[in-house]
Every structure is written in structure tokens, then in C-alpha cells.
Amino acid sequence: MRYVQLRAFHYVAISGGFSRAAAELFLTQPAISDQVRKLESEYDILLFNRERKQVTLTPAGENLLQITRRMFDAENQALELLSESRALRAGVLRIVADAAHHILHILHAFREKYPGVMVTIRSGNTETVVENLLNYEADIGVLGDLNPSREFDIIRLDATPITAFTARDNPLARSDALSFAELATLPLVGREVGSKTRRRLEESAARDGVQLNFMIEAEGREAVREIVASGLGVGFVSEAEFGLDPRLVKIPIRGEPVLMEEALICLSERSQAKTIRAFLDLARTLASREAPQPSHRRAGA
User: Fold this and answer.
1) What range(s) does the HTH lysR-type domain occupy (predicted)?
2) Are 279 and 91 in contact (CB under 8 A)?
């Protein structure tokens, strides 16, 4: 087994094809195919299913990919360590977030301090954020509160209540507040299954003996916003993410607030990578500055 064979396998697996892998590695497709074929032949194992010009991983290939992800990530970390003087003058930091709103202040500080690092941000719900981190497809995640796990380093950001909202011209827009029982009678627009906002709402409503029925399910916060703005029902979002939209009106939910906690997370094993560590360090510093300070009484007061 040679390094070049594992590298060829890895890039075919993550890019989804031999041609794409060849382009990534600046090699010819026959060269990539030959390295993978030699790897499979030497160990008498099939790593890819090749059908109708489509390439998919076999179970053995899936298992090997988990190993090569760690292998090549460790290689990148070693390169960062050896190139420490250049590490934060270039590179890419990949963030996947259920709502980028919660990290804008960190992004401002990070861009000011490390202008050479390119930051990419993709959206996703709680499940896709975790999946992207575990698959090494993202460096840092932002998501609704996560149960403690030894796999992840977690930095708590903030907690805001979930609010209902509707179109400004909907008669419901004049409501002071709505209970779960009242919401259960209305046409509700919800995020896809896997959304933390939806799960928290359903759990809180269930504690009140109410089952919420979502008549429309949409993938992504913006899709929900547009559907509600068109007059098709009532949606939900954390107050911090409501934003300014003249088409929409917030309606508080009666009773104990349903809080959405946001957290910044990364795989513990990757937390010392230079760009990731720099971002997390800034987040911790800003969090400590924003934390309320205990008041001190004067002696004798």
C-alpha cells in the first residue's frame, strides 16, 4: 500500500468521481484509475461500485474513507504546524450554521485579525451540521443547543425565546400572544424534520398536552419566511433570528418561554488546527467580555 494509492482513493471518494479527483490532484484520469485499481488488486477488495459511469463507495470503501479522512486531516494539521508563520495568513475556514446571525460579531473580529483566511459559510439544520463535522466537510458548526459529547468542543453563545410570526395583513397579526392550544388550531408552517426549533416547539407543546400540526413543511428558515409572508400560515423562529422584514409581525407564545440556545462546536480532535483554534479562541474571548459581571457592594453599605 502506497501513499499515492490512498490519496487517489481518498480524492475519488470525496469528489465523487475519477475525473474530478484527477482535476483536484492535477493528474490524468488514467493515472488516478491505475492507482485505485492497484490498491484494490493488491488487497483483493472492491472499494468502488462502477456502474453506468457513476462511482459509489462499497461498504469497505466507506470504512476506508473514515480512516483516510483522519489521515489527511492529520497531514494538513502537521503542515500547519510546520508552516506556523504562514498558517493564519492564508487558508480556508469552513463553517456550517443553522443561523449565521449568532456569530457575526465573531466573524467581524476574525476577519479583522486574520484577513488572509477565506471563510465559507453554508446553512443547515442541527442534523446536517453534526453530519458535516463528523464527515470532515466543515471545520466549525453553529447550531441549537447540543447535548454534551466527548466528540465535540462546545462554546455556548446565547439563548433567545422562540416566537411565532405571520404576515402583516393576516388578522392574527393583531394578537397580543397565542397559546399552544390556539396555535394547534391554525395552519402552521414548520421547518423540516431535524430542525431544533421545530423539535423544541413540539416538546414544549406536548408538555401542555397539545399536539402541533404543521400543514406545510419547508426546508430552511428563508423558505418558511417566504411562505408565511405570502399569507399561508404561521411560522416560528427564535427572536434573535427574526430580523427586519416589514411583511411580517411577531406574535409571542404564551406561557414559559421556549428558549433556543445556540452553540459553536467543532470536533475535539480537530480543535487544535490553527484556523479552528484561532476562531474558537476569539469566540471564548468575546463570550467572556459579554458575560454579566457580578455586582459588588461597598463595605458598610
Assistant:
1) 1-58
2) no
| CATH pick for 158-260 out of 3.30.1490.20, 3.60.140.10, 3.40.50.300, 3.40.190.290 | 3.40.190.290
Q: Which DSSP symbol is given to 89?
A: T
Predicted confidence at residue 81, as pLDDT, reads 67
The backbone torsions φ and ψ at residue 40, rounded to the nearest 5 degrees and listed phi first, read -65, -40
Q: What is the pLDDT of residues 81-125, one digit of tens each?
A: 666 555 566 678 999 987 788 888 899 999 998 888 899 999 887
Q: What is the DSSP string of 167-227?
A: ETTSGGGG-S-B-HHHHTTS-EEEEPTT-HHHHHHHHHHHHTT----EEEEESSHHHHHHH
221-139-279 Cα angle (round to 5):
95
Distance CA(109)–CA(82), nearest Å, equals 26
The whole-angstrom separation of Cα 26 and Cα 69 is 20
What is the predicted pLDDT for the residue at 91?
79
Query: 79 pLDDT exceeds 80?
Result: no
Q: Per DSSP, what are the bridge partners of residue 262? A: 144, 158
Query: Cβ atoms within 10 A of the Cβ of 13, count?
Result: 22
Reduced to 3 states, what is the DSSP secondary structure of residue 56? strand
State the pTM of this model.
Answer: 0.56
- Other CB atoms within 10 A of residue 26 CB: 6
